[in-house]
Amino acid sequence: MRDATTRTDTKSWWKEPFRLVQTNLRQPDALYDQRALARETREFGATALLYNIGGIFAFYPTELELQAVNPMMKGDALGDAVEAAHAEGLALVGRFDMSKATRLAYDAHPEWFVHNAAGEALEYNGTYQACVNGDWYQDYAFRIMDEALGRYDVDGVFFNMFGYTNFDYSGRYFGICTCDRCRDRFKQMYGHALPEVENFTDPAYADYLEFQDRTALELRAKVYDHLHKIAPKVAMTGHRGKSDLIRMEVQRAVHRPQPEWPHQSGEQARWARAYAPHKNASSTSANFVDFAWRFHAETAAYHTLRMAQQLANGMTLDLYLLGVMDQDDKRPMAGVQELFQWHAGVEDAYRDLGSGARVGLYHSLKTNRYGRRDAGGEDVIKAAFFGTGAGFRGYFRALYEERIPFDFVLDEAVEGRTEGPGGFEALAGYDAIVMPGVTCLSDEEAAVLDAWVDQGGVLLITGETGQLDARGLRRDAPALASLPVEGPFTVREDMKGAYLRVSPDEMPLPDSRLVMLDGRFWEAKLRDGAETCMTLLPPQRFGPPELCFPDEESDAPGAVTRAHGKGKVVWLPWMPEVQYYRDSLPSHRTIMTDLITRHIPGAPAVLQGAGAVELTVQHQAGPGKSLVHVVNYGGQRNNLYEEAPALHGLRLGLRNAAGDTVTCLRSGKTLPLGAADGDGLR
Ligand SMILES: [Zn+2]
């Protein structure tokens, strides 16, 4: 096993497949023996330690009058921690929290802080939320950075909670900031006043959403540029916008609505890879069950399931503790440590990986943000499934459960606003793209998608995809020229009691003649050359039993496919993904995935045998190796995560595999690779 102490250059920690432990320190933790903390972190298998610097409370003796010093600290905790970490060969990543400050700053400059329309400050336990546009963030934060980074040889920095918040830790809603700086900046940028309420009934709200995004990204860029001026070798973690590496967070909240979503990590990892494919990324696994109970740990099985999804989709390892390594609830620690130490021994297999997936699931920030603008109601099946909501997750599940390796494709990438390939290149590596309920499309985005289909891509869309513009306003005509139908579109609002009729030659559902249909259903005129399958059986009586037979049929199709150039567009005029998320009916899943796979070459890997597993394929460009992950979800039952039972008898086939052997990284065994079968699988 590689020993972390062999890493003498701690500055390059973030270019490696790192293993990070985040300690969010409490005031008394400054008294903990820093040498012991560094040793425990290194023995745990980590390569980097995240340690408080300052912002709200400095963990070093600051001379800046408005930054409070940790009142329980004796001496210089940060100085000791940097020295101890480096002595153990660990990188030290400093944590700044500029999102709040104490009374020291608030009393001197209340105008730097968030105030709502009633003039109240957003105060929580004696700390005050800073306004993104105020000078705590825009000026004083830079003085704190100058002081701390001028004194301490840290290897990276992490900034907590960059941006706007309208809730406190207790979940109390506060309203938007209406400070003078926000009013002025918004007026300057958009020519009118701030919205009075935070929803689309206020015409200024759509602009305000953009305002939040633009100003937060601008601040992040300003911090990034400043950091690299004063400390060029110090890496900054981030999310959207400027950063050296991406760092996100997975956690649960006990009041989050059911059903449980066990794929938070896989979602974040796919997003990060799509946003900045060349960057290292991690998503720290919060050890606690909820903010209010920061000292009750998750199970080791939950952490390792999260981390397995991350490794399987291009992220590295990251654990988030409240306090130091010596936790009151230590139960998960041994299991996570085992994973960290295993990873240390195989980390070369995790360098420079790219995805081998051939299917992309479209992730639309625009639809997420503006999709509700057009929807009047909040009825769950009609309105609540935009963008990355339940419909998106329904398709995520269908692809995962059918073991089809897939990536995310971001609308921001297609528009050239990410750090990966933009425009056509963002789509070029995929055989098929799935766009579940992506209502908001920009003209530019639609043109790229049309061109990609024209060049041979298979695009599957559902419902009202592309019927709204980039800001959620209804278009006169759909955005996609490659759509297999043309307007006008009519919608049947309530399909309760409806079905689709399906025949065996249409769908691999040999024992079903009907498939349940709920939600909305659209009809439109077919364009020349369009092919259809399945037909609508409109809502029928469902009681009393004597009357439960249809007296109305329809020839409205359940799927429409049409060639466009060298490619195809498949339109589902309903939203099976929303139903699948809610009902988990395998017939829906079959329809959702068969309408993709029937048009494209076979997947790069195939896994046969029973079990709840996720299959991913990654490629390592240098050595020309492929890395296949089989993530076992068998220990998860709703929000219970226990050790997964071992699966036996699974058969893995690899397409286009070179070489004679495969190595199992978990067991260390080498196995022979068989001859190719008729499908090209070995
Ligand atoms: Zn403000």
CATH fold topology of the domain at 359-597: Rossmann fold
> What is the spatial order of strands in the main beta sheet?
18-17-19-20-27-26-25-22-23
Whole-Å distance between the termini? 31 Å
Major beta sheet summary: 9 strands, mixed
- How confident overall, as mean pLDDT? 94
Enumerate the distinct ligands: zinc ion
Structural class category: alpha/beta
**Tally of alpha and pi helices:** 16
Instruction: Identify the overall geometry.
Output: globular
Q: Tell me the name of the CATH class of the domain at 359-597.
A: Alpha Beta
- The helix content, as a percent range, equals 25-40%
Description:
The protein has 682 residues and is of the alpha/beta class. Among the domains are: 359-597, 3-Layer(aba) Sandwich (Rossmann fold), CATH 3.40.50; 605-672, no CATH class. Helices cover 26% and strands 24% of the residues. The chain contains 16 helices and 35 strands. The strands form 10 sheets. A 9-stranded mixed beta sheet has the order 18-17-19-20-27-26-25-22-23, with helices on both faces. An 8-stranded parallel β-barrel has the order 1-2-5-9-10-11-12-15, surrounded by 6 helices. Helix 1 links the parallel strand 1 (19-24) and strand 2 (48-54). Helix 15 (576-583) runs antiparallel to helix 16 (586-597). The chain is globular and about 80 Å long. The chain starts with 18 loop residues before the first strand and ends in a 10-residue tail after the last strand. 46% of the residues are buried. The structure holds zinc ion. Residues 114, 131, 133-134, 177, 179, 181-182 line the site of zinc ion. Zinc ion binds at residues 114, 131, 133-134, 177, 179, 181-182.
